[in-house]
Design goal:
mainly alpha, single chain, 3-stranded antiparallel beta sheet, about 450 residues, 10 strands
């Protein structure tokens, strides 16, 4: 048997004529991707001074929380849960945590229950009414992530096994179950985190930094060209030969200072017979398109539609931007469902018990949709539902009581008539009586005999 020689072949497009794919001739053959780090000072400077970077951080975080959550429960239970959220300042602190996570690479909501031993896991079943005392927003700069949990049987596998936080007198070690933790741009492998971000993610600004910087540089260059929009050009006889005279420079400056003064006062330029004057103008015709391309690249890198990032109307014939916004809304819904809901799970279990002193299993919530229908669209949908209910009632497939319950629940979930569920409960017995479903009157056959006696 001969030796088997293993060769690694790269299947790629090559051209001998153009040099494409040839490492000696192709200029792209030497291009490689390198690691780019933004330290905390740079991140702070971008967020403070750069409008584009600040909007890239803030917009998805704001959109993810601005419509809130729709709780499915009894009306009095919903009021208690929402009152508890307001007491804790939940929405403001959730927005703050999400923004700081996107900026710094990680942040967390600490669930303060007043317990002394914070190294033990947080058990939601032990939380009583008012058990959540406070919520505190901490970033990766405020807390040190511990070693990564390597036990595959642990709930926190691949995540920090603990966090160290500065207390009143010393460092306090806290179990990860006591945090609702958020990351910015997650690492492909938690063990491959670079710098001080182990246990956290990267700032979302790192992946968009090049596109954002190019857009800023383009805008800055266009702005500098405005000052050169009109350039006066003078042609002077024997100019180069006269420069050998030391006193010529002073006379030259005096000459054009006088010319500029005369032009400003008399709106006329006085020249010698042999001098020539010409004005050069810079064309800005294609610069808006160039600027738009770089802004689109930055918006694409941030995964935010240009219309949302810049707050402008869609451009182009028949352009509405609806498809772009629908895709963006789907992305925000993915952030809510895949990132925020799991991170908030243990907090929500504590929140319900802190508000109600119990945990009814039928209580749940859904994130309110970002896309809101107009009154006309809502009315059209309501009309379709009503017509469907009328057809079902006429067909006789369902009883009136069954349809009343189903249609009423649908109207309640759609939010057409506030308070309809309570009104249905209050009038349910009277409605059944109107249908003739009340208990029949019992007639005593001996009643007449009793009266005669």
């Amino acid at each position: 048997m001969g030796d088997v020689i293993k060769l690694r072949a790269n299947d790629s497009l090559r051209s001998v004529v153009a040099g494409l794919g040839d490492p000696l001739r192709d200029k792209m053959a030497s291009a490689v991707y390198g690691l780019q780090f933004l330290d905390d000072t740079q991140l702070a400077a971008i967020y403070k001074n750069n409008w584009l970077g600040r909007k890239i951080v803030d917009i998805p975080a704001m959109d993810a929380v601005r419509k809130g959550r729709d709780w499915q429960a009894e009306q009095d239970q919903i009021e208690l849960i929402e009152a508890e959220q307001n007491r804790l300042g939940f929405w403001h602190k959730l927005l703050e945590a999400k923004i700081k996570a996107r900026l710094w690479g990680g942040a967390a909501l600490f669930i303060g229950t007043g317990e002394a031993d914070l190294e033990q896991p947080l058990d939601p079943e032990l939380v009583k009414k008012g058990g959540i005392k406070y919520l505190t927003v901490l970033t990766r700069r405020d807390m040190n992530a511990g070693e990564i949990e390597q036990n595959v049987l642990s709930e926190f596998y691949g995540k920090p096994a603990y966090y160290d936080v500065t207390g009143a007198a010393s460092m306090v070690r806290i179990h990860p179950s006591r945090f609702a933790t958020f990351v910015g741009a997650p690492h492909a492998d938690p063990l491959m985190a670079y710098g001080g971000n182990q246990g956290w993610g990267d700032s979302v600004l790192e992946s968009v930094y090049s596109a954002m910087k190019n857009a800023d540089a383009t805008a800055a260059n266009i702005a500098s060209m405005v000052f050169e929009a009109n350039v006066d050009v003078f042609r002077i006889p024997d100019f180069m030969a006269s420069l050998s005279d030391p006193s010529y420079q002073g006379r030259l400056i005096d000459r054009f200072t006088l010319a500029a003064t005369a032009k400003g006062i008399n709106r006329a330029l006085i020249l010698d017979k042999d001098e020539e004057y010409e004005r050069k103008q810079v064309s800005f015709a294609t610069l808006p398109e160039v600027m738009q391309v770089f802004l689109q690249m930055a918006a694409g890198a941030a995964d935010i539609p240009v219309t949302r990032l810049l707050g402008q109307s869609p451009a182009g014939m028949s352009a509405t931007g609806e498809s772009d916004m629908n895709n963006y809304y789907d992305r925000v819904a993915s952030i809510q469902a895949l990132e925020m809901t799991p991170a908030l799970y243990r907090f929500d279990e504590c929140l319900i018990r802190s508000a109600l002193a119990s945990r009814p299993p039928e209580i749940f919530y859904a994130w309110a949709p970002l896309k809101q229908m107009t009154e006309k669209e809502l009315a059209e949908i309501g009309k379709l539902h009503a017509e469907t209910a009328q057809i079902l009632n006429t067909s006789g497939l369902f009883t009136a009581e069954e349809l009343r319950t189903v249609v009423g629940n649908q109207l309640v979930e759609d939010g057409f008539y506030p308070g309809l569920d309570q009104a249905m409960d209050d009038t349910g017995e009277d409605w059944q009586a109107d249908l003739g479903e009340e208990e029949p009157e019992v007639i005593d056959p001996n009643a007449d005999e009793l009266r005669e006696d």
